[in-house]
Specification:
single chain; 265 residues; alpha+beta; Ubiquitin-like (UB roll); Fumarate Reductase Iron-sulfur Protein, Chain B, domain 2; 2 domains; 38% helix; globular
Length: 265
């Protein structure tokens, strides 16, 4: 089938800013967007810059915006987006600086992930034997632990987009869906003993109460991590822990009280 790709191009050394370049090529019906891009780079335009590795929706490195939505290019079939001759628009992920063409600078993403202390913080001396957790306890964490750090949810986060409109990626304060989902992964882990301090930190400004529940991170996540659900779970745990005086928690509790007592929203 014939496919037309309109690809975002950016070369920081040229000083020309962002431009779009169109390519037309023949690909098999089963081809992915990544395969089409690689064919362009190998056979048409070797200057095209993109990031990829596993080609199997495991590493997350080929996340980009395809037809105005963050997706893994290796998982997105050309035929599913365009009929014969239709154009597909390919851009780098949003809410991050662009290094070149389709390659985004992930530094701000990793800074936010590191900010939630993504490691176990057990209490007491090391156990004498291996700490085995029951399957039924860990099973609820299977989805959130499956995050491949692709950045798709961060790319399409409307809160981060709003903040980006007010400044640079480095000035965005909201931790974002990926980091908060990673935070929940450790708060909910029975081996971790830092729930109180984690929840206190995440209840502050730029944390769990900044999410507007737009549901976009749920839609674009390629691994079913459901970041928004993890953020809502963190909110419940924070209130249960007694961190209920911040504005977001007070609004939630008052909203619940109003519905319960008056049936009015």
């Amino acid at each position: 089938m014939e496919v037309k790709l309109r690809v975002s191009r950016f070369d920081p050394e040229s000083g020309d800013g962002v431009r779009y370049q169109s390519y037309a090529l023949e690909v098999p019906d089963y081809a992915t967007v990544l395969e089409a891009l690689l064919k362009i780079r190998e056979e048409v335009d070797e200057s095209l810059a993109l990031r990829c590795s596993c080609l199997s929706a495991i590493c997350g490195s080929c996340a980009m915006r395809i037809n105005n939505q963050a997706r893994l290019a290796c998982k997105t079939k050309v035929k599913a987006l365009a009929g014969d001759g239709d154009e597909i628009v390919v851009e780098p992920v949003s809410n991050m600086s662009v290094i070149k063409d389709l390659v985004a600078d992930m530094d701000s993403f990793w800074q936010k992930v590191r900010a939630v202390d993504p490691w176990l913080q057990p209490k007491g001396p090391p156990p004498e034997r291996e700490y085995l957790v029951a399957h039924e306890v860990m099973r609820p964490l299977a989805d959130v632990a499956g995050c491949i750090m692709c950045g798709a949810c961060v790319s399409d986060c409307t809160v981060l987009e709003t903040e980006l409109g007010l400044g640079k990626p480095s000035e965005q304060t909201f931790l974002g869906p990926a980091a908060l989902a990673k935070g929940y992964r450790f708060v909910a882990d029975p081996r971790d003993a830092a729930d109180a301090s984690r929840l206190l930190a995440l209840s502050n400004a730029e944390g769990i109460w900044d999410c507007t529940r737009c549901n976009i991170c749920m839609e674009v996540c390629p691994k079913g991590v459901a970041p928004m659900e993890q953020i809502l779970a963190l909110r419940r745990k924070a209130i249960e822990q007694g961190y209920d005086q911040v504005l977001g928690a007070r609004h939630t509790l008052e909203f619940e009280k109003t519905v319960r007592e008056t049936s009015w929203i």
